[in-house]
Amino acid sequence: MTVSHKPTTAATEASSDTATQSPAERSRALRDTLGQFATGVTVITTLDTAGQPVGMTVNSFNSVSLDPALILWSIDRSSLSYTAFTECERFAVHVLKGDQQHVSNLFAGRGADKFGQVKWHSGPGGIPQLDDCAALFHCRRTQNIEGGDHTILLAEVLEFAASGGEPLVFHRGRYRALAGE
Ligand SMILES: Cc1cc2nc3c(=O)[nH]c(=O)nc-3n(C[C@H](O)[C@H](O)[C@H](O)COP(=O)(O)O)c2cc1C
């Protein structure tokens, strides 16, 4: 049987076509195509060098290794929180629940007063910890890896806990609910 690897009609809403696309159009098409990959949504928090809480919404979070326990995520070089995260010793990853879209929107705001509008406390190492989430990972940053306009942060998981519940899902630029089992 011959298997075709050509994109189907359904998959060609966005595509790479250097002959007709401007760099901006190609970038938009790449973004749209990457957006087909559904992810969970996290809020990642740390302290800046002045000891102020810092946090941002992140969906590039992923598992790397079980032994040793490693995770990664990538941060845009233009984020206001860039220096805080790329130089911190520790950070906390909060996996959001399905009903926490407002928390995702809050922490996706640029430099907004994010911590005045959610319940949180100081967790291990003084790192800000949101009071409610589906899962929590306290991490020690181990490596920064340059990745174009982002920097990949690799980290060791020190502590973790899960409270379960339906997760918040992000797909094609929108929040979604998980389809029933
Ligand atoms: C669902 C979602 C996922 C996001 N994932 C990331 C990510 O993985 N990395 C990143 O740098 N920004 C990501 N962002 C954008 C940041 O949350 C946003 O730029 C935020 O304003 C950064 O805050 P800051 O500029 O105050 O540091 C995401 C935003 C949303 C809504």
From TrEMBL:
Q: What are the transmembrane regions?
A: none
Q: Which residues form a coiled coil?
A: none
Q: Where is this region: Disordered?
A: 1-26
State the species of origin. Answer: Microbulbifer bruguierae
Keyword Acyltransferase, does the record have it? Answer: no
InterPro entries, alphabetized: Flavin_Rdtase-like_dom, NADH-dep_flavin_reductase, Split_barrel_FMN-bd
Sorted alphabetically, the keyword list is:
Oxidoreductase
Q: Which domain of life is it from?
A: Bacteria
Identify the Gene3D superfamilies for this entry.
Answer: Electron Transport, Fmn-binding Protein, Chain A
Low complexity biased stretches: 8-22
Q: What is this protein called?
A: Flavin reductase family protein
Locate the Flavin reductase like domain: which residues? Answer: 34-177
Q: Is Oxidoreductase among this UniProt entry's keywords?
A: yes
